[in-house]
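Suppose you are handed a protein chain with no further information: no name, no annotation, nothing but its sequence. What can you learn? This example shows the usual starting point.
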Amino acid sequence: MTPDLTYGGSGDLVLQVTNFLTRLNLLKSESPIFDATVEAAVKEFQQARGLTVTGVVDAITLRSLDEARWKLGDRVLSFGTPAMRGDDVAALQSQLSEMGFNCGRVDGIFGKDTELAVMDFQKSVGAKVDGRCGPATIMAILRLKKIVSGGAPTQLRDAANRAERGPALAGKVIVIDPSQSPELFDLAQRLEGRLIALGVNVYLTRTSKSEPTELTRIEIANEANADLVISLHQDSYANEKAHGVATYYYGSDSHGVHSIVGERFATLVQREICARTDLLNCRTHAKTWDLLRLTKAPTVRIELGYETSPSDVKRISDPTFRETTVEALMVAIQRLYLAAENDAKTGTLKVSDLRRAGVRK
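A reasonable first move is to predict its three-dimensional structure. Written in C-alpha cells, the prediction is:
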C-alpha cells in the first residue's frame, strides 16, 4: 500500500502528484517537494471532488487524482476486471444518461450497466455493437448530443422507483451501517427493532464484535438489494469545541451529478434530528466517499455529534437521547416515501401517525 504523502515529503510519487495537479491547473509546475503550495493545491482538489479536505494525499485522493486526468477520447473504454475508472467514464455515463440510456449512477466506473448502455446506444445508431467506447462511438455520441436532450432521466427514474414502491414501509429493505461505538450500535439496534415491527427487512452491516471493511459493508448493502442505506457515525476534530450533527449523500460537482433520493433523505434526517434535539445543525453535504459512491441504493452517512466533544458524548450516552434520535430517523424514513400532500411540518409527525399515511402492519 502506498504511504500517505504529507507536507515536507519528497520523491518520485510527489512528482507524479504534482504532475497531476499541474495538468488540472491547480499548480503552475510540477515538483518533487511537497511544500505549502502543493498542500494548498491538494486541499483545493479534495474540496472540488467531494473528498475529506486534509491536504494529505492518501490512497483515495491519489486514486481520485488518477481518475481526474482522463478526458473522454483519451482511451478506449470497455468493461473488464478491474473496472476502468476516470472522468472520461463519468463523462460518457453523463452523456448517455442525458440521451435516455440507462447506465445507472454516474460514478465514473465502467461497470456492466455502462456496457449495456453503450450497446443500446450503438444499436440505436446502427454502429457495431460491442460495448466498447472508441472513437467511432464517441463521434456518434457527439453528433447525436447536438439534437437530443433527455432532460434528467436519472432523476426521473429515481423518482419513479420511489413512487412505485409506495409509501408503506412494509416490504422495503433498509441496511443500517453503525460504527463500532457501543452507543451507536445500540441506536442501530433500536432502529432495527422499530423498523422490523413495521414489516421492513433490515440488515445490519456488523455485529457488536465484528469490524468488516468498508468494501465488505458496501457488498452487504448491494447484495441485499437495499432501498435505503443509513450509516451511523460520530465525527472527530482536534478542537473539542467542534460539535453538532451533519449528514452526507453522494454528489460530485466535478461530474455534475448527485443522488436525488440521497439528498432528500439527508435533508429530512438533518431537519428531523435538529428539530427534536439540541444538536447544532452542521447541515447536509455532497461527498464522493466510497460508501456513498459505490453503494447502489441511496445512502446517507449521519455524523451524530463529535466523539471529541464532551457535550456531544454526554448526549449520545443518554438512552433518552438515542430514543429521540430513533424517532427522528423513523419519521424521516417515512417522509421520504410520502407524497407531498401527505407530508407534515418538520418535527411534528409522530410514528403513531404513520399508519394513517399508508403503513401496513
